[in-house]
Design brief:
The complex is a heterodimer of chains A (265) and B (197).
Chain A (H helix, E strand, L loop, with lengths): L11 H21 L28 E2 L36 E10 L9 E6 L24 E5 L5 E7 L4 E3 L5 E3 L2 E6 L8 E6 L18 H5 L4 E2 L10 E4 L2 E3 L16
Parallel strand pairs in A: 2-11, 2-12
Antiparallel strand pairs in A: 2-5, 3-4, 3-8, 6-7, 8-9, 10-11
Chain B lengths: L1 H8 L36 E9 L9 E6 L24 E5 L5 E7 L11 E8 L6 E7 L3 H6 L1 H5 L2 H4 L3 E6 L2 E3 L2 E2 L9 E2 L5
Parallel strand pairs in B: 1-8, 1-9, 6-7
Antiparallel strand pairs in B: 1-4, 2-3, 2-5, 5-6, 7-8
The chains are: A mainly beta (265), B alpha/beta (197).
Chain lengths: 265, 197
Amino acid sequence: MPRLASQPDLSQRTISDEIADRHALEQDAAASEGRGLAAHPRRDFAPYRSTLLRHPTHELVRADPEEIELVSPAFGHTDVAAEEADLTIQHTGEPLGERIIVTGRVLDGEGRPVRNQLVEIWQANASGRYVHKRDQHPAPLDPNFTGVGRIITGDDGSYRLTTIKPGAYPWKNHRNAWRPAHIHFSFFGSAFTQRLITQMYFPGDPLFALDPIFQSIVDPAARERLVAAYDHDVSEPEWAIGYHWDVVLTGPKSTWMEPEDADHA
Amino acid sequence: MPEQTDRTEQTTPLGQTPSQTVGPFFGYALPYDGGPDVRAPWLPDAIRLHGAVFDGAGDPIPDAIVEIWGADAAGRPSTERGSFTRDQHGFTGFGRAAVDRDGHYSFTTIKPGAMRDGSAPYLLVTIFARGVLQHLFTRAYFGDEPAANAADPLLARVDPARRGTLVAESDAPGSYRFDVRLQGEGETVFLDYGTEL
């Protein structure tokens, strides 16, 4: 199979330098304004080149959420079957790779469970290949693994999925660019303003420091919140390795009042 | 004294889990049959909301995915289940549509009622794409509601030169066009609900 087209002029060194420069800028700005670092990634994080033409340049306009934004769509067992939480049983044979269990709870900022809400996941197979027609990574597809699952959280906000540990894979951001192994997760909160799509990573990945998508989160403590923990109590003897990952969906910081004499935003 | 006890039991707010891009390879995972059909198209109250998503060079984005969430005709959010398995007669209010190669998406839904006295009806629109590290929220108001729009508190706060980016204009009977520009000329107004941490 043909190798991926690469961008020989753009080295990891250049990207890593850009990451370090931006992190320093963000730290200086936060220190001089006496605030903490942002939890979410910077949408204009240039080391991730696809952001360049895809981030807004105007400041977002602060909106007072109305009722539709303070609730979420209702999903339930009419929408999602229990078997969809196990990505290893979707075909006639067993998928190749390391069988894992990922479990945790979805909570709001006050630690209250996000109950009976939808979690969607998708991922590459053990070889780092997605079942997607535009994934050109010359790694094998696995006829017994699709890599898509859905779960409805329990009354305690818990979810639990069984899958295969995904492989790292190359991408074209720069020469010799590799994404750390990750599982894509999509969450709905109690309010639509808590909507979140993110990626869960595995502990100790040597690619973390090099990856402009992971490093687009400039706060190291916030980055750590995307890394699952190995949990021996979740591992099952002679069956699967266990990881624990809790997710927090905060709501609006405070009740916000429409300013009486607001300038046009 | 009881107040003091309450205070000491308060826990520190938990840290938000950060967003990451939806990436390029969601196409076999997130779209689903019936996702864009929030209301069955043959029902008399069905409307179409469609448009395209553009980048800062004015080119259509072929790998974005759009979600809408809206109230019913009376301005109330639906509590019906079944957004994934539509029964063709109900209304859950939630829809999801991946854009095509020309960046175009299309939903059928209901034109919502206003949720508050003095505010205009709208659909909440959420944009996810490769290169978008955190999704973007916006609202699609309706061009054939000029009086309600003129009184709406959010629209009133937006720079008049940019206000039109929040309005879906009628382009055919029962059809509204809502283009989204992520950057540059005509950049869409995106919203912060106090969750930009």
